[in-house]
Amino acid sequence: MNPNHRIIDTLTHIADSYRSQGVPYKYKAYRTAIDAIRSLGTQITDVSQISSLPGIGKAMVDKVREILATGALQQEKDVMSDPITQAIQTFTSIHGIGPVLAKKLVHENALRTIDDLEASSHLLPPQARLGLKYAKDTALRVPYDEIEDHLTYLKKVVAKLVDPMLQICVCGSHRRGGATSGDIDVLITHPSSSSDSGSEYVFLHVIVGVLRDVGYIIDVLAEGTSKFMGYSRLNPSLPVRRLDMRWMPYDVFFPALLYFTGSDMFNITMRVEALRRGYSLNEYGLYEIPGYEHLHHAPAKGAEGPPAGAAKGKRVFVDSEKAIFDLVGMTYVQPPQRSK
Ligand code: DCT
Ligand code: MG
């Protein structure tokens, strides 16, 4: 356990409340400070140990000082004991309910609990009604070992009923070594697929069909050619889990693996580093921004440009996550150290 877990947990509670209230800049400020503290490695006994860290301003130093002096933070106690804040947090954790709707339900309709929502489900859009159907189950974190069981099951079913060459991995917080995860993030590719052809995009549809037939996928929130969002269950004695699946052709597998592993904040940091080196990085690839000198070429291959909507520039083929770190001038970071 991190020697500063008390400080980290306290600040995380406040960060989460800002996120659910729809105040992203505050959420990011807390997350940046939390990451700096998590990376410290030594126990904080005095605020002088953190006051010069990047991302930690005076207000954050004051909060840490209060935690060190009193063992707690009044602001956290207020957040955790405020029924309105807690209701907004509960509601925004339901798929299909964002901060604006959550606040409306709390302030205008005086709803506070999942039971209240169930009694007033006519106030919800269809996606949120589906989210509500599984809300009690999906509020539970998914243990590491259960996700491994999902992976084993998925590999077996897909190899047998779709194609034995399909490669499946779990990304997200699970790949970062999280003891529990909020959902199951699955990335799928096939070694013979390429973004040049596009025909392989039919794979995800076939996989989803098979997984529905065998009763593993029990409901669908959204399904496209490269993304699936829905609900799955390994067996009836276990809770229903939120399942996110992405299909990526093999030539863009590693940028996708990097993106889908996260964390969200780590991705932002890495994108900024890439930009400094003249690259634009997203889940679909690493692109050279025209006009920069790109000294460290990886062998470029195929695909002339990014998909619609992505930054313009030539795509750089990478055959590992490490190759992306190298190109953007970062030391390789192992997945468990990417929880930032
Ligand atoms: N991601 C991102 N930016 C976002 C959301 C997601 O870069 N705004 C990436 C990084 C993580 C990955 O997608 C999966 O997203 P989540 O499942 O939301 O996050 P997680 O890290 O897996 O955490 P959790 O345990 O809550 O699922
Ligand atoms: Mg996840």
Topology summary:
Blueprint: H1 5-21, H2 24-40, H3 58-70, H4 74-81, H5 83-92, H6 99-107, H7 114-119, H8 126-133, H9 135-138, E1 142-143, H10 144-161, E2 167-170, H11 172-175, E3 180-181, E4 184-189, H12 202-213, E5 217-223, E6 227-232, E7 241-247, H13 253-261, H14 264-276, E8 279-282, E9 285-288, E10 314-316, H15 321-327
Parallel strand pairs: 4-7
Antiparallel strand pairs: 1-3, 2-4, 5-6, 6-7, 8-9, 9-10
Helix pairs in contact: 1-2, 1-4, 1-5, 5-6
The structure holds 2',3'-dideoxycytidine 5'-triphosphate and magnesium ion (MG).
Structure in words:
The protein is α+β, with helices and mostly antiparallel strands and 340 residues long. The protein has three domains: 5-138, DNA polymerase beta, N-terminal domain-like (DNA polymerase, domain 1, Orthogonal Bundle), CATH 1.10.150; 142-248, Beta Polymerase, domain 2 (2-Layer Sandwich), CATH 3.30.460.10; 262-339, Beta Polymerase, domain 3, CATH 3.30.210. It has 15 helices and ten strands. It has helices spanning 5-21, 24-40, 58-70, 74-81, 83-92, 99-107, 114-119, 126-133, 135-138, 144-161, 172-175, 202-213, 253-261, 264-276, 321-327; strands at residues 142-143, 167-170, 180-181, 184-189, 217-223, 227-232, 241-247, 279-282, 285-288, 314-316. The strands form three sheets. The protein has a five-stranded mixed sheet, with helices on both faces. A three-stranded antiparallel sheet has the order 8-9-10. A hairpin with an 8-residue loop joins strand 6 and strand 7 (241-247). Helix 1 (5-21) runs antiparallel to helix 2 (24-40), helix 1 (5-21) crosses helix 4 (74-81) and helix 5 (83-92) crosses helix 6 (99-107). The two termini are 16 Å apart. The model is unreliable at 297-311 (pLDDT under 50).
